[in-house]
Amino acid sequence: MPFYTPDNYQQSESVGFLLNKARNQLAADMDAALKELNIRAQHSGILMSLLRGSCTTPASLARHLSVDTGLMTRILDKLEALGLLVRSRDLADRRVVNLQLTPVGYAAALRITEVAPDVLNERLQDFSDVEYDELRRLLHKLIKE
């Protein structure tokens, strides 16, 4: 049975609208918390991925963060201009660009690890442990991870 039909669909009550609104609110909270570092919420995923070593190329970051490669390039340009990361060609395959945090980028990424839990915990403060676990389970089910 479909959840939405032309007769009952209301954009402001749709799952997509509500998820996007929640994401925008979290991003605004994170932007405010990271203002001292001159970075934005959208930068945090990149910096954290580089800190953890999980994604170290523009292509792998774009896939991991579900961002198109053009936007990824623009964000990386900004982060490089801020002195947070450097790009270098892979020695084995010159087509591959490797990314590495600078000392300033490393310090910023470490600061994100301090700030992000506070921002998220503030939004989740009215959730029980069971509700938190269920929210995560349902989000993973929705994105099919």
TrEMBL record:
Keywords recorded for this protein, A-Z: DNA-binding, Transcription, Transcription regulation
Pfam family, one: MarR
Keyword Transcription regulation: yes
Domain HTH marR-type: 12-144
Claim: NADP is one of the keywords in the record: no
InterPro entries linked to this entry: HTH_MarR-typ, WH-like_DNA-bd_sf, WH_DNA-bd_sf
PANTHER family: TRANSCRIPTIONAL REGULATOR, MARR, TRANSCRIPTIONAL REPRESSOR OF EMRAB OPERON
Name under which the protein is recorded: MarR family winged helix-turn-helix transcriptional regulator
